[in-house]
Specification:
Blueprint (H helix, E strand, L loop, with lengths): L1 H19 L6 E10 L2 E10 L3 E9 L6 E2 L9 E7 L2 E6 L13 E5 L6 E2 L8 E7 L2 E6 L3 E5 L6 E5 L7 E5 L2 E5 L4 E5 L6 E4 L4 E8 L2 E8 L9 E7 L6 E4 L5 E6 L2 E6 L2 E6 L5 E5 L6 E7 L2 E6 L2 E5 L6 E4 L4
Antiparallel strand pairs: 1-2, 2-3, 3-4, 5-6, 6-7, 7-8, 9-10, 10-11, 11-12, 13-14, 14-15, 15-16, 17-18, 18-19, 19-20, 21-22, 22-23, 23-24, 25-26, 26-27, 27-28
């Protein structure tokens, strides 16, 4: 135990010293990945000396060979990507000013995942998430304002989340579910009017629509009067009645292909076959967390910090380290 503490102290000291000398290596943080039209698209940002961020926008036809398409983009983080109606939509924007300029919203569209066109939105807020369902794209900004589009190219303002803090989106059962680290979920079929559903937990870590229902993981605790965290499974069949029970499952990204589910949690990737319990299959080589998983054309792609993982069966993985060669 003493040796482990000493090693941690040494690593912290070295990291601080490198940062002070301007020698810290960039971090490549991919936040989201999706698949459409035979191509994977992944987005995130390149962190430079923890003071400035460059966008990361990458695509791949097979999940193994990747190309960047961000050289001419604004110096803003990219947060999410969705695909629908033959179009990819990417959103982003720094949450706070950086060394090179202020925060500003970024929205992009592409029909092939390679050539990208900017989308103008009437908001100064960074754009946090985008989702597609029932022929409709929905974008939400950091203030809770939503924007909708059927073609993924021209967006119009829609409704506003009442408390303005639920800035993540999941679609299922004809409903968009808006959620975050907050004890409630809002649902809407069109992002115009929202129905609030309070939860008897403190917040939601992740939420997906799988096996015909919304399923996610929330928590109780982590507060000043209750620092210990207990995890709870959150479920709803139609987005109207929500239930919680003590438990958890890996859900940093969740993708299905040919009866196999793959999900991330911490440094691990997990696999479930035909509804059986998840089992760990891969640990990130760079020892950083996995953030999202997508599946397409019989291939799984998992993204996170400093690496991309690819598999055809969810069991054996090929690692692509970042930066790209």
């Amino acid at each position: 135990m003493t040796n482990r503490s000493s090693r941690v102290s040494l690593l912290v000291f070295l990291a601080l010293a490198m940062s002070a000398c301007g020698e810290e290596d960039p971090r490549y943080e991919l936040h989201a990945v999706t698949h459409g039209e035979g191509r994977f698209v992944a987005v995130g940002y390149e962190e430079i000396d923890r003071a400035d961020n460059l966008p990361l926008l990458m695509s791949s036809a097979d999940g193994r060979s990747w190309t960047r398409h961000d050289a001419s983009l604004p110096r803003q983080e990219l947060h999410d990507v969705a695909f629908g109606n033959g179009v990819f939509v990417v959103v982003g924007g720094n949450h706070s000013p950086t060394a090179t300029g202020p925060s500003s919203p970024v929205a992009l569209s592409s029909e092939d995942g390679v050539t990208w066109t900017g989308i103008d939105l009437p908001t100064p807020e960074p754009l946090t998430h985008v989702a597609f369902g029932d022929g409709l794209f929905v974008i939400i900004d950091h203030g809770g304002q939503t924007f909708v589009s059927t073609d993924g190219k021209s967006f119009a303002p829609s409704g506003t989340i009442p408390d303005g803090v639920l800035h993540q989106i999941t679609f299922g059962a004809g409903q968009f579910a808006f959620w975050s680290f907050d004890p409630r979920v809002y649902v809407s079929p069109d992002a115009q009017a929202f129905t609030e559903h309070p939860l008897d937990i403190h917040g939601v870590n992740c939420l997906h629509f799988i096996d015909g229902q919304f399923q996610g993981v929330g928590y109780i605790g982590g507060l000043e009067d209750n620092p210990f965290i207990d995890k709870y499974v959150v479920t709803s069949a139609m987005g109207e009645a929500w239930a919680t029970r003590r438990g958890s499952f890996p859900c940093n990204g969740l993708a299905e292909s040919n009866g196999v589910l793959v999900a991330g949690s911490g440094l691990q990737l997990y696999r479930s076959v035909d509804g059986q319990p998840f089992t760990p299959t891969h640990t990130a080589e760079e020892q950083h967390g996995r953030t999202d998983v997508a599946a397409g054309d019989g291939v799984f792609v998992a993204v996170g910090v400093d690496e991309i993982d690819t598999s055809s069966d969810g069991r054996t993985w090929t690692v692509t380290l970042l930066p790209l060669p």
